[in-house]
């Protein structure tokens, strides 16, 4: 397998922050199958107002066993891996963001025997009857950048005790680099950044896994006093609804961008514009020169301003990189010392992002902009990565300022914080609002 399987209230907190019963034979999903003729728009002839859009770089294995409903956005370098025993279905208005990995089944699981554990006699999701694996993702589910989902799993399903609310407020949010592995997440739940829900666990409606926590038993999932989950709140719900609105707009407007010119949705190119949060179509610039390079191996989109020339950036950057200034903008990026594989830049609407000179970006780094109110009544502050900063593999920066010469350790996350120059954050550490929240447990 190519990539490692990895996997706050305020909105920042959510971003940081079951026993499934499957039939004996996996049902074939209904809906649009993202076969060649249905890429990047699924169905090919759908009106933009209802279309699903898959970025040209997204990888799909056995699309006949994958079902996508309407208004779904699938971002750059996402991977959906299904087979006839492990189908994948994704419901209306859900989104699969950059570098997300969905596996219908872990290798070899489709023939696994039934298992059980000692937590109250629970059987694991692979349980009795050689249950066939698969991944079912319901309506209005958000799979943020770098998430992984490993089947058999269900996300956004109706709870055993709490029926679905027809009025809404039932989204599921999986934050940056979180993981759902063989688990069930009911509607109105969430998992914080670098959080995880493990096999056999059911996350019940109204609960969110805290950032970095690894929930492996039903007791941990049900009891906030154990320090791994908290209750969802109104800020979480409002944030989720805004994310859904943005990504359904992406499905519509990237479809229109593609139909204007199929090469518009490849390589270095335009953002789609024509949304309430991003009105204009912009091109990235290199050393002050706007450039459009549809054949480039990475996705650089929108009002992204790099101080490096295109040639130099290409020489110091890896593969499967997604720098997307299609929501928040502009992005100002200084000279890149090194940029590893699977790096992601993005920003919330009305937020920008600034990165300094000589920054080293490890593999699977996420840098995400989002407005921060530092002084009441003053404009929001951008996310800033200073000069000579080292962001080690799988580190995450969100709504923060990282001082010059700082080092953010491997698989660490920094949210809502102003770090002084020269700060060293140890590996696998969660920093929220400038203080250590905990460790990444897995």
Give a summary of the structure in a few sentences.
InterPro entries: Gamma-CA, Trimer_LpxA-like_sf. The chain is mainly β. The protein contains 4 helices and 44 strands.
Please write the CATH class name of the largest domain: Mainly Beta
Shape: globular
Whole-number count of domains: 2
Largest sheet: 9 strands, mixed
Distance between the termini: 19 Å
Assign the CATH topology of the largest domain.
Answer: UDP N-Acetylglucosamine Acyltransferase, domain 1
The CATH architecture of the largest domain can be named as: 3 Solenoid
In percent, how helical is the residue content? Answer: 10-25%
- The number of strands is 44
CATH superfamily of the largest domain: Hexapeptide repeat proteins
Strand order of the largest sheet: 1-2-5-8-11-14-17-20-22
Secondary structural class = mainly beta
Taking Cα atoms only, what radius of gyration do you get, to the nearest Å? 21 Å
Low-confidence stretches: 1-15, 17-25, 110-132, 163-167
Give the rounded overall mean pLDDT.
88
InterPro entries: Gamma-CA (IPR052265), Trimer_LpxA-like_sf (IPR011004)
Keywords: Signal, Transferase
Protein name: Acetyltransferase
GO molecular function: transferase activity
């Amino acid at each position: 397998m190519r990539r490692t399987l990895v996997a706050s209230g305020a909105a920042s907190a959510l971003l940081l922050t079951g026993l499934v019963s499957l039939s004996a034979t996996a049902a074939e999903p209904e809906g649009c199958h993202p076969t060649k003729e249905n890429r990047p728009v699924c169905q090919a002839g759908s009106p933009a107002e209802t279309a699903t859009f898959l970025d040209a770089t997204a990888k799909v294995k056995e699309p006949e066993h994958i079902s996508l409903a309407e208004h779904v956005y699938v971002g750059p370098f996402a991977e959906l891996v299904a087979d006839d025993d492990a189908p994948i279905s994704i419901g209306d208005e859900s989104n699969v963001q950059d570098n997300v990995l969905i596996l219908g089944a872990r290798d070899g699981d489709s023939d696994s025997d039934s298992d059980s554990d000692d937590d109250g006699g629970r059987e694991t999701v692979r349980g009795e009857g050689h249950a066939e694996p698969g991944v079912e993702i319901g309506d209005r589910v958000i799979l943020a950048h770098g998430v992984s989902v490993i089947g058999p799993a269900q996300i956004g399903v109706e709870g055993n005790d709490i029926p679905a609310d027809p009025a809404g407020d039932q989204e599921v949010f999986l934050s940056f680099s979180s993981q759902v592995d063989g688990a069930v997440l009911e509607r109105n739940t969430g998992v914080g950044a670098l959080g995880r829900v493990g096999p056999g666990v059911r996350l019940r409606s109204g609960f969110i896994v805290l950032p970095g926590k690894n929930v492996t038993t039903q007791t941990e999932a049900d009891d906030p006093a154990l320090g791994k989950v908290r209750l969802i709140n109104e800020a979480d719900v409002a944030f989720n609804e805004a994310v859904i609105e943005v990504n359904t707009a992406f499905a519509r407007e990237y479809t229109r961008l593609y139909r204007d010119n199929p090469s518009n949705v490849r390589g270095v190119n335009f953002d789609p514009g024509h949304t309430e949060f991003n009105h204009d179509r912009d091109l990235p610039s290199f050393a002050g020169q706007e450039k459009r390079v549809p054949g480039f191996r990475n996705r650089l989109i929108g009002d992204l301003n790099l101080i490096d020339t295109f040639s130099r950036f290409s020489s110091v950057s890896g593969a499967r990189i997604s720098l997307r200034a299609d929501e928040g903008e502009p992005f100002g990026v200084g000279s890149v010392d090194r940029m590893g594989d699977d790096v992601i830049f993005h920003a919330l609407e009305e937020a920008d992002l600034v990165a300094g000179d000589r920054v080293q970006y490890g593999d699977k780094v996420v840098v995400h902009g989002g407005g921060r109110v530092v002084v009441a009544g003053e404009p929001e502050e951008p996310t800033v990565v200073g000069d000579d900063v080292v962001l080690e593999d799988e580190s995450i920066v969100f709504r923060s300022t990282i001082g010059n010469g700082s080092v953010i350790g491997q698989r660490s996350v920094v949210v809502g914080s102003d770090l002084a120059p020269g700060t060293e954050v140890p590996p696998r550490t969660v920093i929220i609002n400038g203080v250590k929240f905990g460790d990444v447990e897995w």
